[in-house]
Design brief:
- Its EC number is 3.2.2.21.
- Belongs to the alkylbase DNA glycosidase AlkA family.
- Pfam families: HhH-GPD.
- It is an enzyme of class 3 (hydrolase).
- The chain has 2 domains: about 15-45 and about 165-210, Orthogonal Bundle (Endonuclease Iii, domain 2), CATH 1.10.1670.40; about 45-155, Hypothetical protein, domain 2 (Endonuclease III, domain 1).
- Helices cover about 55% and strands about 0% of the residues.
- It has 12 helices and no strands.
- The longest helix has 16 residues, at about 105-120.
Length: about 220
């Protein structure tokens, strides 16, 4: 997910306890976690903006996504400090949205996302009381959001502690390199490794991402 530099960062309060738990129980985490010091998962921005950014960023480079996002946001309130809200997005015409460099498909996805928020089909105020799968089910009902995007949202926006995104190529590669000496890993093998990290599978996943890329993971 594309970071938003104008919003403050929030970090999970369970991180230190999770690290202690994983270091005690997992030989790889015992070596991996200390390598990254005080680095933590962090989130920023509101739910609608985060999901809109994830849609715009699909299948294009981070640099291109930043450029398109900047042009898109500028359409909402030209000359002012733009606020990305569902009504503001729905107020734009399709042709106007296309001028930001969006494909017709992404325009459709963004309008469907905005409509879900306006209609109350996205129960953001209830998420704290919903389990992960219930939130995933709600999000994948929106066009352009699949399970992987929903799981990234659970990790990077809601900071849920026990998400295991088995469709993520980085996670699979990290498990392969750190647990199987680089040998190919099946989904079942990855799940078995990940299940041992519970109830902090998110944290272990994040450290495996870091083992591949020393820069903080920010989706």
């Amino acid at each position: 997910m594309i970071p938003s530099p104008s919003t403050s960062l929030v970090m999970p309060d369970y991180w230190d306890e999770a690290c202690k738990h994983l270091v005690r129980r997992d030989r790889v985490m015992k070596k991996l976690i200390p390598r990254f010091g005080e680095a933590r998962l962090q989130t920023r921005g509101d739910a609608f903006t985060t999901l809109a950014r994830s849609i715009i960023g699909q299948q294009i480079s981070v640099k291109s996504a930043q450029s398109v996002w900047g042009r898109f946001v500028a359409l909402l309130q030209p000359g002012a400090d733009p606020v990305v809200t569902p009504p503001a997005v729905l107020a734009l015409t399709i042709d106007t949205m296309r001028t930001a460099g969006l494909s017709l498909r992404k325009v459709d996805y963004l309008r469907d996302l905005a409509q879900h928020f306006v209609d109350g089909a996205v129960h953001e105020t209830s998420w704290a009381d919903m389990d992960d799968e219930a939130i995933i089910d709600e999000l994948v009902a929106i066009r352009g959001i699949g399970r992987w995007t929903a799981e990234m949202f659970l990790i990077f926006h809601l900071m849920r502690p026990n998400v295991l995104p088995l469709d993520d190529v980085g996670l699979i590669k990290g498990i392969s390199l750190n647990y199987f000496s680089g040998e190919p890993v099946s989904r079942a093998e990855a799940r078995e490794v990940g299940d041992a990290w519970a109830p902090y599978r998110t944290v272990a996943t994040w450290y495996l991402w870091r083992s591949l890329d020393p820069l903080p993971a920010d989706r």
